[in-house]
């Protein structure tokens, strides 16, 4: 009869230690994210109070700024190039180098 080789199975103590450390790390990350989020929310509220505008007014202002920027970008794109050519439209398939 041949003797059995030593059992090289699963080290459950090592696995359990890793699981405990992973759980503790996850808990610390969750607490850190909660504290960071609370700090950001508090800072945003203080900033909003300092603007003397309601959240709805701030939103309308931000939308107005975005619309002005969009219009300016579209007009700049459609403006003639220095040599008098126009840029190709996005969907026409032509490629014109910009010099």
TrEMBL record:
Residue ranges for the region (Disordered) are 76-99
Q: Does the keyword Membrane apply?
A: yes
Alphabetic keyword roster: Membrane, Transmembrane, Transmembrane helix
Composition-biased stretches, type Low complexity, lie in 90-99
Q: Which stretches are transmembrane?
A: 14-41
What is the official name of this protein in its record?
Answer: Uncharacterized protein
To which species is this protein native? Actinomycetospora rhizophila
């Amino acid at each position: 009869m041949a003797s059995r080789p030593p059992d090289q199975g699963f080290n459950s103590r090592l696995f359990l230690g890793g699981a405990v450390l992973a759980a503790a790390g996850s808990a610390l990350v969750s607490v850190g994210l909660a504290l960071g989020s609370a700090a950001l929310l508090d800072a945003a509220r203080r900033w909003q109070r300092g603007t003397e505008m309601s959240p709805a007014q701030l939103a309308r202002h931000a939308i107005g700024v975005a619309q002005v920027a969009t219009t300016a970008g579209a007009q700049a794109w459609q403006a003639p190039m220095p040599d008098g050519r126009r840029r190709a439209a996005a969907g026409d398939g032509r490629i014109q180098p910009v010099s």
